[in-house]
Design brief:
This protein has 264 residues and is mainly beta. 11% of the residues lie in helices and 63% in strands.
Length: 264
């Protein structure tokens, strides 16, 4: 009898399914992560008139940009099949601003010069919450490393005005700094649109856990000033413009449901 060939075939038949088995497939995932969000230019207004009294007027060149900041993301994803999933997320986006001011024409007013100096380089903190839903497409769902692409649409909610601009000067009559409103904004709270497109990789980190790295382009509707006013202290013309805020994120995933790997 040919015992050795038969034994070899039996061993090969037993080992082959084990070697063909893949990792389990994550189906329901909750994620929390953080990362850096790049800045962007918001608006610039040349030749804004600023008055002292009724007749003394200077002109300012004004600008505002969004500073790079940290963001925090919370998301949940469900995959009914191997590739396409449904996802919802809340993204806390830092929208802190930095202002600029250049005195284009000076009448010699020390008050206005001090106001422009106080605006130049001034920074303000702000955060918008973007809530969205979308689709995600992944490959290698049974692999340890799985690439994916996602697209989301939703709303952005912010309570910090990107239109209002205020400077200050020292008033000897009250022996204190006094605010001077350049642009007013009576309704700083706004709800605008939000979309994002991203690509990344997930890495299986153990039973029930994943690590995720993602590059994302966030397209956020932000109110911007579009024209100078005839006098300081007024509400300027403004509109909501889309701004690209690129982000790099790292997340930790908790896998709540898995599908067993297939055998071939």
């Amino acid at each position: 009898m040919r015992v050795r060939p038969i034994a070899a075939l039996l061993v090969f038949a037993a080992i082959r399914p084990l070697s063909a088995q893949t990792a389990d497939q994550a189906r329901l995932i909750l994620s929390v992560g953080t990362g850096i969000v790049a800045g962007a230019d918001l608006w610039s207004i040349p030749g804004q008139p600023v008055f002292q009294g009724l007749s003394t007027v200077d002109t300012f060149d004004l600008g505002r940009r969004i500073r790079p900041a940290w963001g925090i993301v919370f998301s949940g994803t469900y995959f009914p099949n191997d590739h396409i999933g449904y996802t919802g997320k809340a993204f806390l986006i830092g929208l802190g601003t930095e202002d600029s001011c250049r005195l284009r024409f000076s009448s010699g007013s020390g008050e206005n010069a001090a106001v422009c100096t106080s605006i130049q380089g001034s920074q303000k903190s702000a955060t918008a919450v973007a809530v969205s839903t979308g689709l995600i497409y992944r490959t290698g769902s049974h692999k340890r490393v799985s690439p994916y692409f996602r697209g989301n649409v939703g709303l952005s909610i912010s309570q910090q005005s990107t239109v209002r601009m205020i400077g200050s000067f020292f008033d000897p009559n009250v022996n204190a700094n006094v605010d001077k409103i350049i642009f007013s904004d009576p309704k700083p709270k706004r709800v605008t649109w939000y979309t994002s497109f991203g690509a990344g990789l997930t890495f299986a980190a153990g039973h029930g856990y994943q690590v995720r790295f993602e590059a994302r382009d966030n397209f956020v509707g932000i109110p911007v000033v579009t024209g100078a006013t005839t006098h300081d202290g007024l509400v300027p013309t403004h509109s909501v413009r889309g701004k690209n805020l690129f982000s790099l994120l790292a997340s930790f995933d908790v896998v709540l449901e898995r599908r067993r790997g297939r055998r071939y």
